[in-house]
């Protein structure tokens, strides 16, 4: 990239990494000119790129482990992904593994934290609602299915699940309203 400063052209080296964002090795120039917000933003981008690469690697490893039914090690890889990127769908894979391996008591705290950190992630909200439904905590299930439906009003599985809960509580009019 080239930009003009007075009469002289200044060049900035740009390194392009495969499938990632642009990394700016020459950030010292900008910070010396009092443009540190750019440096901070680029540093965050670089960290995000490193995390993204690590997440991709961990996802690949977890998938390989699952091919050989090694759920214990795969769940550790998914946990590492969630630590790097709390809004990654690896949360849902981890929930599935925890439920399958008899560790359902670890699911609720994981989902509550994920919903808190990623309030617009409808799949996390729906998964938490389903967890409440499994344990017959129906008022919480209604609350989270309703939140999910606000984000995705056409989600047929959520409408179905919420309708069943309303019917089980003899709230037929609420169930009917969902289908209108």
Characterization of this structure:
With 180 residues, the chain is mainly alpha-helical. The protein contains 9 helices and 4 strands; from the N terminus they run E-E-E-E-H-H-H-H-H-H-H-H-H. Strands 1-2 form a two-stranded antiparallel sheet. Helix 3 runs antiparallel to helix 4 (90-100).
Secondary-structure topology with pairs:
Elements: E1 2-5, E2 8-11, E3 15-16, E4 22-23, H1 27-32, H2 36-67, H3 71-84, H4 90-100, H5 107-117, H6 122-134, H7 138-151, H8 156-168, H9 172-178
Antiparallel strand pairs: 1-2, 3-4
Quick rundown:
This protein has helices spanning 27-32, 36-67, 71-84, 90-100, 107-117, 122-134, 138-151, 156-168, 172-178; strands spanning 2-5, 8-11, 15-16, 22-23. With 180 residues, the protein is mostly helical.
């Amino acid at each position: 990239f080239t930009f003009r400063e007075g009469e002289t052209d200044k060049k900035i080296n740009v390194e392009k990494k495969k499938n990632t964002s642009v990394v700016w090795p020459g950030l010292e120039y900008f910070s010396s000119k009092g443009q540190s917000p750019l440096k901070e933003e680029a540093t965050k981008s670089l960290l995000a790129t490193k995390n993204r690469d690590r997440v991709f690697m961990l996802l690949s490893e977890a998938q390989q482990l699952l091919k050989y039914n090694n759920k214990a090690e795969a769940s550790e890889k998914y946990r590492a992904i969630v630590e790097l990127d709390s809004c990654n769908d690896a949360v849902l894979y981890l929930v599935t593994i925890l439920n399958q391996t008899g560790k359902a008591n670890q699911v609720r705290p994981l989902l509550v934290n994920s919903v808190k950190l990623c309030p617009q992630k409808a799949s996390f909200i729906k998964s938490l609602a389903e967890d409440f439904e499994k344990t017959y905590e129906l008022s919480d299930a209604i609350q989270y299915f309703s939140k999910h439906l606000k984000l995705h009003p056409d989600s047929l599985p959520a409408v179905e699940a919420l309708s069943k809960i309303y019917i089980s509580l003899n709230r037929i009019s609420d169930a009917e309203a969902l289908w209108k």
